Every structure is written in C-alpha cells, then in structure tokens.
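RESIDUES AND SHAPES:
===
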Amino acid sequence: QNEEKWDFVLVSDIHEMGSEKEIKRKKFLDELSKKGFTIKKIEDTKLFYGVRAPQHIFWKYQCLLTNPDSRQQNSSAHQDVPVTTRIRIVHFILQNTVTCDLEKLHDLMKKKVFEAAFPLHKKEEIREILKKKWARWRVIFKEQPIEEIRCYFGEKVALYFAWLGWYTYMLIFAALAGLATVAAGATVFSTSQVSKEICDANNTIMCPLCDQNCSFWLLSDTCTYAKVTHMIDNEATVAFAIIMAVWATVFLELWKRERATVATNWDLYGWDEEEEELALQLINNSQHEPRLYQHSYWRSTIVLILALLMITLLIGIAHALVIYRAVAMALLAQSEADLLSKHADTIAVMTGAVLHYITIVIMTRVNRHVALFLCDLEKPRTFSQREKNFTVKIFIFQFFTNFSSLIYIAFFLGRINGHPGHYVRIAGHWRLEECHPSGCITDLFIQMAVIMTLKQTISNIMEYLIPWISHQLRKKQKPPKRRSMMLGEEEEAEDPCKRQWLNNYELNEVNIFSLFNEYLEMVIQYSFTTIFVAAFPLAPLLALINNVIEIHMDAIKMMRLRRRMVPRKANDIGIWLQVLEAIGTLAVIGNGLVIAITSDFIPVQVYKYMYSPCTRENRTGMDCSTGYINNSLSVFRVQDFEPHTKAGMERPGLAPTGLCCRYRDYRNADDYTYTVQFWHIFAARLAFLILFEHVALCVKLIAAWYIPDVPQKVKNQILWEKYNNLHSELRWVMPWKVAG
C-alpha cells in the first residue's frame, strides 16, 4: 500500500533513444536518484515518472524547523509530516535540482524535455469531504470547510477562501446600504423639485448638442433621464459614501482579527517565510549559501521610467476612448435613422463602455507581460519577493486600465468642452461630448453598470467554461493505446497507478498565477465596489451576487477541473492587505470627488442658501431649490454660433425665443465669462471636498484604532505559550545551577 503513494508525477514525450532530450531527461532523473528518490516509470502515449522522496528528507525538515508539523509531540520524533508539507518539500527539491549541464526542471520544461510536473489528486477521505461540502452548487449558502481546504490545498489557498468568505459576508451590509440609498432615491427624492422643474420646462429651449443635424430641443424632453439621475444624485448618496468609507475600514480591521485567529489556530502566527525557504534550500543542498539581499538604484530608476511609460500608454487608451465617443456622437447625430440620431448620446456612452470592457480584457494580458518583464529587471531574491513586486505592478497597471475612462467621465466630462460659440474640438473638427442636462453622474452610473455587469457575467462564464471545455477535449483526445510487447510491458499496462496518473494528466494545468488571478479579480472588484460607489450604489449588491457564485465556481475548478495545486504556506494574504488599504484611502478621495465635482449636490446647496427665493423672503412652505434649473442654465445668442455650424438646426415648430438658447453653465449673457456664482460653487466644492476627506479619514482612523488588529484571546494564547516555553527552559537550567 505504502509503495503506491507517489508525491509527484513527471510527464514527458517518448523521445528517440540517444536523442538530446532523452539524455537530458536521464541526467535529471539520475540526479533525483542520487538524492534517494524512488522513481517509477509507466509508458502510455506519454512517459509518466512517479517520484517519491526518501523519508530522511522529511526528518531533516522536522529537525531544522521547530514548526507546527513537528511540535505536536516531542516523544515521537519522526512522525509523518502532513501531505501538504510533503508535496511542498518535494516540489521545492524538483524545482531546484540541478543537472550536470546546470539545468533545472524549469529549463528542461522550456526545452520540452518534460511536459508537465504535478502532485496528484488522490482518492482520500478529505477530498471526498471537500467534493461533498464545498465543490458543488447545492452547498452554495453553506459555510466553507476552511480547515479541510487547508489540509488539502495548504494555508495560502485556505486563507484566500477565508478572506473571500469574509469579504462576501461583509458585502451583505454594504449591499443593504446601497439598496436603501436607491430605495430612498426612488421614493423620498422621486418628487424632487429639480426633476419636477425639468419635466415642466416646456418653454426652455436648449442649444443643439452637436454641430450638424442637431436641432434646438426642449429641456422637458429629458424628463425621464432627470428622474433616474435624481434616484442616485441626492442627499442619501452623501451619507452612503461616508458609510462605505467606514465600511471599507471596518471590513479590513475585522479581517485582520479573523486572520490572527486563524493563523494562531494553525500555529502559524509567528511563522517566518525566510527561515522556511532557507531550511528547504539546505535540505535540497547542504552546501547551499543564501542569496543575499541586493538593491540597485539604477535598476529601480529604469523600472520606474518603464512603469510610468506604461501608465502613460494606459491613459492614452482612455483618451482614445474619449475621442471615439466624441466622433461616434457626431456621426450618429448625422445619421439618417431617426432612432440613432435621437439617442446619439446614450448610444455613444453605451458603446464606449463596451469598448472600454474590450480594452480591459486585452490590456490585462499585455499588463501581465509588462509586469513580469519589469520584475525580471529587478532580479528579486526569492519567489515570494518576486510575487510581491509583481502584485504591486500589475495592480497599478490594472487600476489605470479599469479606471482611466471612469476618471475622465467623473471629473472631466462636460468641464473642458468650452461653451456654445467657442467649443473645444478634437483636431479642430469634432466637439467634445457634454454631460447630460440632468448632470454627469448618470454617465458614470451607466459606464459602471455596463463594465461591472460585463466583467462579472462574461468573465465568470469564460473562467468556468474554458477549463471545462479544455478538460472535456483532453479526455476525448486519447490516441489508441500502445500495445508493444517489449520487456515486461504487459504487467506495466495493468498498473493500478496508470489510470490515476492519466486522469490527473487529463485535468487542466495549474500555473503559479492561478491563485494570483483570483486575488486580482477580487481586488479589482473591490475597487469598483468602493471607489466610485457614490455614483453606483448597486455595486456592492452586484459584487455580493458574483462572489457567492465565484466561491463555489473556484472550488469546482480546483477540485474537478484542474490538477492539484502545489500547497504553499502562509499566515496572511500578503501584499494584498496593503493593496486593499490603499484602495480604502482611494475610495475616500474618489467618493469625495464624485460628490463634490460630478454630482449636482453642491450647486443645489449653494443655490438653496445663497440664491434661492428662501434667502430673500421667509417662505416656510416653499422648497428652497425652486428655480434652481433656470438659475443653472446660461443664455446664448444664436447669432454667436460658429460660422461652420449649420443653420438648419430648427426643430419644426420650435424657434428659439428672442434668438436665444440655453446651456448648462454659469456664464454671463453678454461676454460669456464666468459669473460670480460659478466661483461661489467652485469654492463650495473645494471646501466640501476638504471637509469630506478629513471627516471620512478621521472616522477611518478612529475605526482602525477602536477595533484591535489582534483579539485579546489570541494575544493571551501567545503570551501563555511564551511563558510555558520559558518555564520549561528554566527547569533545565536549575539542576545545572544546583550541581555547580
């Protein structure tokens, strides 16, 4: 029974005897044999080599590290190490075994000497428990078996699922707050004075939205749009933005407590990754000398310059999307089809959002290659250091890929396009698009909704379907079995390991970034859920629905569609925690800017307290925002239009009163300079932004101070452990002293 327990399987094509590949393979396997590894060969359409490490390697590991695996009972010095530890040690040795040609397994796989190397999914009790309690759709609302995940996939994977489960649980509260905000917008604020005035503005003639084929139009045409805008742009949104800033902090603080508890239960609280890595190096090669820390300012400068160039490219892509929308708007407005010309602005925004999604998909792949290249330039000391560097770079690139377009819509759209008679134009030809007369926040809402929905539906379907289809194809692609009657071939054909190894080989390959990809996907989603949440209060709800499905989809992929992951040890989620904290700070800044700049919240408040009828006379029963719409529209004389703007803009039966039209801005009617009110609003926006950021950041700091990172129970447990260790040391010291 014991003979058939194999730690790893190496797969190779059948090479000709004496060929270069066959010689290299033999050299590598000889090196393993010298280290005491048992190797079993099975031939099918490929060559399979089962690898089992000698027991003394694991004894060395237990002696070198006073680690959780050996700390349980001192009496039995050499007990079995857990399967996850066993796989991890064997994987490290395989990756770091050097042939006489100075080639490692990684180099041999590049040269196609070996095709794959993987640990086995075995028929063991824990696997059946995970399949039953975790990797199936029926248990979608049940708690995850984190302890079993740890025993099968190792601590790193278990911590990812513990974090994802915690994040999903906390999203319930954020989703409820978002729903309450939208519900308040749909009920309490649906009868708002501002949207009522827009719907009643039958005589307010607005300036054309494009140069050709665009007629003057009535403000009341946008009644429905105004009502939708007011559902998300009201006083409740300000409260929701502050709640979400606090939520992000509380979520991370509570996760730190959860992580401390989990790490202590696993006896990993004080675990040192560097010590573990040095121990594995010494087990593999007792003559090994550690690779020292290095830092080169020259390399760092090159990496910084290249990273900035990449960010510039990503911002350039966002500019290209802006140009697309401006050109699409102009061309659609000139279209003969009434449907297209009438809804030119909405179609331009929607197609722009879809294009943005496509650029996200393409640039995600490009970003990965660039980030890996930059990591290679830095020459990190260890794999974990490389992973940290890679994480920071890919997150920054992904952030700009996902958010550049949103930042433009939120903070620049409609603010840099000039005014009638003096528009800012792309290449002197196409007008930059304007915000909708109801406000810019709806454009941001549409963009967020489209991107989040597409990301979560299409990406999830692809994430599940591609591994499933590829697994089905691999199963079907079995060529006819070789039945050569060479020495002892028949007995080998009936080998009980053969079926198991083939089944594992048919599963999808797992790469070192499999878990990284899951983290990155969730962290980008977390950014969407927090940074511009004021413009899209339904983001937490969409994230919650996605995550409930995501947890079980990942489980099914790991258990049924992919080869077994090499377990890795960890006592926290690593650099991702700092990334999440950075997003929390960005969320405060982002939401503050959305309310101060994108939303109409500040202009309405300035109007209420400085310019409304309420300031002139005491009318208790009157809504102080009465007259806001008329006040927020400037007057433009039609004779001042640019010469190339077509005159045929009149809508049948609609002639501009007194040859004037209105547009959204605060400008004087005679020379089109900014009015005093514009500067009042500008000052109020700035004051609100500073106040909001400081209040939100103070609340975050108070929340972080109020909730301790480590629970008292864990602190006391660690304290008792230290005390007991010192006490037992003292018992050894005392007899010597007496004897002396």
Notes: Residues 8-120 form one domain.
